[in-house]
Amino acid sequence: MRAIAVANRKGGVGKTTTSVNLAVALARAGRRVCLVDLDPQAHATLHVGVVPGSHPLSAYDVLAGDESLATASVPAGDNLVVVPSHIDLAAAEVALATRAGRESILKSRIEADPRCKGTAPDAFDYMVVDCPPSLGLLSLNAMAAVDEVLLPLQPHFLALHGLSKLLETIELVADHVNPRLRLLGVALCMHEAGTRLATEVGRDVEAFFEASGDRHPAWSAARVFATRIRRNIRLAEAPSFGQSIFEYAPESHGAEDYAALAAEVDQAAACGRDDVRRAA
Ligand code: ADP
Ligand code: MG
CA-to-CA distance for 207 and 184, rounded, in angstroms? Predict the structure, then answer.
């Protein structure tokens, strides 16, 4: 199973839109996907059509209680389950603050779940974790549990600042908690085609990886995804119908872009395996 956290400490950059539509695109491509909503706002949960609180368990019970991922999972379409969020999750940061090993709870739940191991007939191919817009204990649990981080970035003159903060965090987590953690790549979201800023931010990020990657194994293999997620009103409308872009507006630019991004993410796995084979 590949586990990918979608993270950025800024809100409103496209984390939830990317988590949900990437998860659904992978599921539609035949991958079995578990979407974990770690944002107390529960927007990803709503986006896949699950009403927060309509199921007895949520990510709160997994992190702050003893519940397994399996008992908290809710079916959310073909090949897709969601571990829903609930506003209670905001209290998890406090509930966990004094607990030993508090940053590794999600990791231990994943390790205890046979569906995350690849041998079970219903094993997941992907876990996608939607992180809250902060780098607190919830995001830390995500980064301690996954191998890869996908960073959605809105082309903005402060975008690089957000990037360097997240990179510092990834490196800290990789050094102290989860040595396997890597930045998979940057997805440029809400892209306004033809604007100078959008082109420049993409180029700046690529230049930044090229200039500094060698010294930082946690992001030396990171890329800016070729797919630009264009600004598309359909993407903003879909969540209120509890539908991904593929159900709400299958012919839209949004659907086209997220299908292409999912193909790139899936391809990155294939490349990774080839690299491993070549090195072996
Ligand atoms: P985050 O999870 O980082 O806070 P969201 O994914 O919730 O960000 O996106 C913030 C807002 O922007 C939401 O209202 C969402 O529907 C909208 N949005 C996200 N991506 C796009 C896009 N490509 N085009 C238009 N609106 C978008
Ligand atoms: Mg969000």
Answer: 16
Lowest mean pLDDT among 134-138, 145-149, 226-230: 134-138
What is the residue whose two structure tokens read 């999750």? 89
* Tokens found for residue 87: 């506003």
166 within ligand 1 shell (Cβ under 6 A):
no
Ligand 2 centroid vs 75 CA: distance in angstroms?
A: 20
Q: What is the pTM of this model?
A: 0.95
> Would you say 24 and 80 are in contact if contact means Cβ atoms under 8 Å apart?
yes
Verify whether ligand 1 is closer than 6 Å to residue 229 (CB atom). yes
Contact assessment for residue 105 and residue 137, using Cβ atoms and an 8 Å cutoff: no
DSSP 107-152: HHHHHT-GGGSS-STT--SEEEEE--SS-SHHHHHHHHH-SEEEEE
Q: Is 43 in the pocket of ligand 1 (CB under 6 A)?
A: yes
Tens digits of per-residue pLDDT, 87-102?
999 999 888 988 989 9
Structural domains of the chain, ranges and CATH numbers in brackets: 2-279 (3.40.50.300)
Q: The tokens 């890869």 sit on which residue?
A: 148
Q: Give the tens place of pLDDT for each residue, 5-19.
A: 999 988 999 999 999
- For the stretch 120-124, contacts whose Cβ atoms lie closer than 8 Å and that sit 24 or more positions apart, written own/partner, are 122/32, 123/1, 123/32, 124/1, 124/32, 124/33, 124/34
Query: Following CA atoms 52, 57, 59, 60 in sequence, which dihedral angle do they give, to the nearest 10 degrees?
Result: 100
